[in-house]
TrEMBL record:
Keywords, ordered alphabetically: Membrane, Mitochondrion, Mitochondrion inner membrane, Protein transport, Transit peptide, Translocation, Transmembrane, Transmembrane helix, Transport
PANTHER family referenced in this protein's UniProt entry, alphabetically: DULLARD PROTEIN PHOSPHATASE (PTHR12210)
Keyword Disulfide bond: no
Gene Ontology CC: one annotated term: TIM23 mitochondrial import inner membrane translocase complex
Membrane topology: Single-pass membrane protein
Known role: Essential component of the TIM23 complex, a complex that mediates the translocation of transit peptide-containing proteins across the mitochondrial inner membrane.
Ranges that cross the membrane: 93-116
Family according to the record: Belongs to the TIM50 family.
Pfam family, one: NIF
Every FCP1 homology domain range: 167-310
Name of the protein described by the UniProt record: Mitochondrial import inner membrane translocase subunit TIM50
InterPro entries in UniProt: FCP1_dom, HAD-like_sf, HAD_sf, TIM50
Domain of life from the UniProt record: Eukaryota
Length: 373
């Protein structure tokens, strides 16, 4: 009985497949879709799914009826909407290219007009050259001057002229970096970015301002620097503030060029932690270690003492002193050691011969205290 039932079921299955064979079409792209016109009894009985191709241009005909094409593609998106979006994107792209081309034509036309009529770009050109060659040279000169202006400071004189009499002009000028010398930037999850004030910075500014014209020169932007200095300099002892647009951009670094400072370089001292920032006038620079936010730092006290000694000794050219300390990685430590040796030497001289003559003592004091000689 079971064999009879099985043979009957197989014959029924074969007859149904032969009737639905017309619903299948050739597979060109090997993409298939479930036939929607199969009888539910057959699908539930055989638990199988038959697929047909969507690559045919004409819809498949099943049992004398025509099945309409499904407007959805294999990704489940509407083909008409995708086509409209594509056409809209192409239209917007064409409009964008049109405006870009029109802008370029206006810029080139204006540039050619300037190069043809401006006498500034006609200097030092050979009249024997062809006119297109001369026009090309003018354009190259204009482009070169444009990039040079981007690398150069915004103005020629970084500081105004010294104060005339009867106003008091300090004899020396101190140019000091702000970031990691006076303040240190820190970031935390709770506060975000903030600047930490260095220990003894108020004492340093007060002591140095008596004999120095203090200038803060940093490569940071002005909208960051000015609020910090307003909060830091409560007594207004910082006379000038120079920011990023006052630097020269050389080899990927913002360099401080004090040739534009409008001061006598024999009286100018630059204090910085980055040697690349002062490489144009290294003989005027005192490079000290960078402050990373330590609470027990005492370096500003040593720096104030060093600067006060230079001004008190009335050094004619500070570059002689700075050239000596340029060879050390920690110049203030060397200065402190020279100071200790000097005090020991003075004690020995007092015990041996009493008080030295004024001129001899002053010359020996300056050499030992500054140069370590």
């Amino acid at each position: 009985m079971a064999q009879v039932f099985f043979r009957g079921f197989r014959l029924c299955n074969t007859s149904i497949l032969s009737k639905t064979a017309a619903a299948c079409c050739k597979c060109e792209r090997r993409t298939f879709k479930l036939l929607s016109n199969l009888q539910p009894s057959f699908v539930s009985l055989s638990n199988k799914k038959l697929y047909s191709s969507q690559s045919e241009k004409k819809p498949a005909e099943t049992l004398g009826t025509t099945r309409a094409l499904d407007p959805l593609d294999i990704f489940g998106e509407n083909k008409d909407e995708r086509r409209k979006e594509k056409e809209k994107a192409i239209k917007n792209l064409k409009i964008g290219f049109f405006f870009i081309g029109a802008s370029l034509m206006m810029v080139l036309g204006s540039g050619l007009y300037v190069l043809m009529d401006d006498n500034y770009y006609k200097k030092d050109e050979d009249e024997k050259d062809m006119y297109p060659v001369r026009l090309f040279n003018r354009g190259r000169l204009a482009i070169r001057e444009f990039f040079e202006s981007m690398r150069a400071p915004s103005y020629e004189k970084l500081l105004p002229d010294p104060l005339p009499y009867p106003y008091i002009q300090p004899p020396y000028t101190l140019i000091i970096e702000m970031t990691d010398l006076l303040v240190h930037p820190e970031w935390t999850y709770t506060t975000g970015w903030r600047f930490k004030k260095r220990p003894n910075v108020d004492h340093f500014l007060e002591q140095v301002s008596q004999n120095y014209e203090i200038v803060v020169f940093t490569a940071s932007n002005g909208f960051n620097v000015y609020p910090i200095l307003d909060s830091l300099d409560k007594n207004n002892v910082i006379m000038y503030r120079l920011v990023k647009n006052a630097t020269d951009y050389i080899d990927g670094h913002h360099v401080k060029n004090i040739d534009r400072i409008n001061r006598d370089l024999s009286k100018v001292i630059m204090v910085d932690w980055n040697a690349d920032s002062v490489k144009l006038q290294r003989e005027n620079a005192l490079v000290i270690p960078r402050w990373n936010g330590e609470d027990g730092d005492q370096q500003l006290i040593q720096l104030a003492e060093f600067l006060n000694v230079v001004s008190a000794s009335e050094v004619n050219d500070v570059r002689e002193v700075l050239s000596y300390y340029k060879q050390f990685d920690h110049p203030l430590e060397v200065f402190k050691e020279n100071q200790r040796k000097l005090l020991e030497m003075q004690e020995e001289q007092k015990q041996i011969s009493g008080t030295l003559p004024i001129n001899k003592a002053r010359g020996s004091w300056k050499d030992k205290y500054l140069y370590g000689k």
